[in-house]
Amino acid sequence: MTALFGFPLPLLLGQLTLGLVSGTFYAMLALGLAVIFGLMDVINFAHGAFFMMGAMFVWMGSTYLHLGYWTMLLLAPALVAVIGALFQLLLLRRLRGMDPMYGLLLTFGAALLLQGLFRALFGVAGEPCNAPRQLAGTLDLHFMFLPAYDAFAVGASIVACALTWGLIERTRIGAMLRAGTEHPALAQAFGINVPVLACLTFAFGSGLAALAGVLAAPIEQVSPLMGSNLIVVVFAIVVIGGMGSVSGAIVSGIALGLIEAVAKVLYAPISSTMVFLFMALVLTLRPAGLFGKER
């Protein structure tokens, strides 16, 4: 059997494939966090709660309303985006111009509130969410059998990341976003409504987190606690890529998923801390992050 560094090659390829699944979810979550920070200078600790709400909504739609997965794939992110817009309009907007620490504390409190609300309503036990029947089979990759739904989730996540990157880097809306980020007063003078842009950005980032939750729901147990620990890892990924960097969030998210997967084969106990070790290394060598700009 072919081996690499003393480990069977099929095992390493299988772990890399699983790492790609995790990495694309990391990339989507980090992307939403980076977009919000890039325009608003807000570290959104409610991002993990929005991810959880996307997963919970698809499970609730299936369990209580008997709505199909494909319907909830569109509906759940839209609902969370509306919730994110209301949160920004009613609460977060009032902190504009204040110390960023207030925004961090507000979003952290909102995350605890949302998590507590869902815990009170549904408990902490994980609930299964079935994949759509069209994706119920497996794919033979010769070195492993990959569930068809996992392959779909990877593809959908990559497409979502690519479209978001194209929207921000290659369209007029993206140019307005960048102008509002770098020179808000000047952008306002040229007729760009920066407050509305900030609201739409927060809604879009929240919806992106919810979309990641919807895609993750059939892969892992749906629970009110599923986003609480994830946000710390995603924040570390954003720091590695560069705060506010769209490209950095995507590349770092996928890369860290792959590194974490390989670490599980080489030395499993260190896999859960790889992201933080890598963050410490990057910050030592390049404090602005891999793709960040020095201020």
Describe it.
The protein is mostly helical. The protein has one domain (3-285): ABC transporter involved in vitamin B12 uptake, BtuC (Orthogonal Bundle). It contains 11 helices and 4 strands. The protein has helices at 9-40, 47-63, 69-90, 100-122, 148-170, 172-182, 184-189, 194-216, 230-241, 246-266, 274-285; strands at residues 3-4, 7-8, 138-140, 145-147. The strands form 2 sheets. It has a two-stranded antiparallel ribbon with strand order 1-2. α1 crosses α9, α2 (47-63) packs across α3 (69-90) and α9 packs across α10.
Short descriptors:
two-stranded antiparallel sheet; 11 helices; 4 strands; 68% helix; ABC transporter involved in vitamin B12 uptake, BtuC; 295 residues; mainly alpha; two-stranded antiparallel ribbon
Task: Describe how the helices and strands are arranged.
Blueprint: E1 3-4, E2 7-8, H1 9-40, H2 47-63, H3 69-90, H4 100-122, E3 138-140, E4 145-147, H5 148-170, H6 172-182, H7 184-189, H8 194-216, H9 230-241, H10 246-266, H11 274-285
Antiparallel strand pairs: 1-2, 3-4
Helix pairs in contact: 1-5, 1-8, 1-9, 1-10, 2-3, 2-4, 2-8, 3-8, 5-6, 5-8, 9-10, 9-11
Number of strands: 4
- Looking at the overall shape, the CATH architecture is Orthogonal Bundle
Spans of at least 5 consecutive residues with low confidence: none
CATH class: Mainly Alpha
**Helix amount:** 55-70%
Question: Beta fraction of the residues?
Answer: under 5%
Write down the overall mean pLDDT: 87
DSSP helix count? 11
Order of helices and strands: EEHHHHEEHHHHHHH
The largest pleated sheet is described as:
2 strands, antiparallel
Radius of gyration (CA) equals: 19 Å
